[in-house]
Specification:
By secondary structure, this protein is of the alpha+beta class. The chain has three domains: 73 residues, Winged helix-like DNA-binding domain superfamily/Winged helix DNA-binding domain (Arc Repressor Mutant, subunit A, Orthogonal Bundle); 117 residues, ATPase, nucleotide binding domain (Nucleotidyltransferase, domain 5, 2-Layer Sandwich), CATH 3.30.420; 117 residues, ATPase, nucleotide binding domain (Nucleotidyltransferase, domain 5). The protein has ten helices and 18 strands. The protein has a five-stranded mixed beta sheet with strand order 6-5-4-7-11, with helices on both faces. β17, α9 and β18 form a beta-alpha-beta unit. α1 packs antiparallel against α10 and α8 crosses α9. The chain is globular.
Amino acid sequence: MNKKILKDVKKHHLHLLLQSLFSRDSATMSELSNDTQLSQPSVRNMIRLLQQHDIVKETGNDHSTGGRCPTRFALVEKHFNIICLYIQNPKITYQIHSYKKILTTDILEFEDEQQLITLIKVLLTKFNCQCIVIAVEGIVRDNEYLTDHNNHFETHTWITELEKSINIPILVENDVKAMQLGTCYHHHKNSSIYLHLNKKGIGSSYMYNGQLVHGKYGIAGEIGLIPYHDISLNQAVRTCNKPKDFQNIIAYLLIIVLTSLDPEHVDLSLELDWDLDWHLINETIYTYLHSQFIYDIKVYKQYLDNLFHGLNYLGIEKILKQLVEESNEKI
């Protein structure tokens, strides 16, 4: 077999193994073999390699059912210190994660993007982390993003400037996509959509076959740009001042989602003072669809929990890929 192909195959196998250890917290050789569909000798060789590089450790033994007591293995947590940031001008909400534990959380305010960069650098000097993961409102394109909060698009490039001045990886994701990724801690669906509303407008995220859909230009999910009574849905939310108008906006959103995507599951969260009137919403949907479709809809109040779960997952996945690259070089 071509040497490069062999390396790529082993890299893929290492990644499967590390993902299994992350999802299970700890696992035996047999469990890892079942999860990865690899032979136990192959798993044993990879575990030894990862132990040599202090990436995997033994955590104890299970009771024997006959023969040797199975040894349990887990990831070494010190490799997974992550700064998770949620940027909502003019504030940053941040959490410092050590693997799956939250070490600290706080909110900081900033006046401009230069001060924002300075605040993040201060956090880096205070906390020893291997990765920064940032959630932003808007359309993400690499390490830049676009917002339309002032009814016109603005491009934000400060993350590129930050990246040039630090030596750890940065990941950037749309905030609603991070929220949806965080719901994977609670349920797994083949297709689902997440809707989030706040005073600036509406964001959405679509997941298909367990993968976030970004689209060609990162605009997938920007449902707030759709026209609604001669203005955008984002503008309609910003100017809404009547409860019935708000319920109509929610019904309109759900009609778009149900008819265009027909998902298995819909998640919804609000950063607004309005309450949802499901009787009125369902009546409006029935007026246009002429049928009572039964959908699995869940409303989240703690949307920040979802967001930071999602950011931490992205950070761990990034570090796992780096560890695979480093370990694979030794094969």
